Amino acid sequence: MADEIIVGVSLGVVKGALVNRYINQCSATMNGTHMESKVQDIGSATHEILSLGTDFANMGWIYLKNTDTTNDVSFGLDNTGTFLPLINLKAGEGCVVRLITKNVYAKSSAGTVQLIFCAFED
Fold first, then answer.
1. Model pLDDT for residues 56-104, shown as the tens digit of each residue
2. Interatomic CA distance for residues 11 and 22, integer angstroms
3. What does pTM read for this prediction?
4. Which of 13, 37, 69, 83: disulfide with 118, CB 3.0–4.6 Å?
5. Cα gap 113→44, rounded to integer Å
């Protein structure tokens, strides 16, 4: 079977004379057999790795949702103990991205936030 993964993204702005919308949908074949879906507590004291299963061999798509009502959560890489943030989700925001590594780290801006994520092997 092909095209088991379906990804839809839309982004728009309407502010005065600024009006623009982007809509994209694509599909991908899931060659792997693993999926991980969970809620993980992300703290602010230090960055921590997302708890993806050890069975993941071929990273694919991941959905990230910051469920906190106040605090941001950032995602990035670890460079010998230093957190390098690449993506930030404000309170209540979510996103879908394709990963090339399962070594993704997260850190809250304050307190502990609950992060929902769902990852699929490619």
1. 877 889 999 999 999 999 999 999 999 999 999 999 999 999 998 889 9
2. 5
3. 0.89
4. 37
5. 9
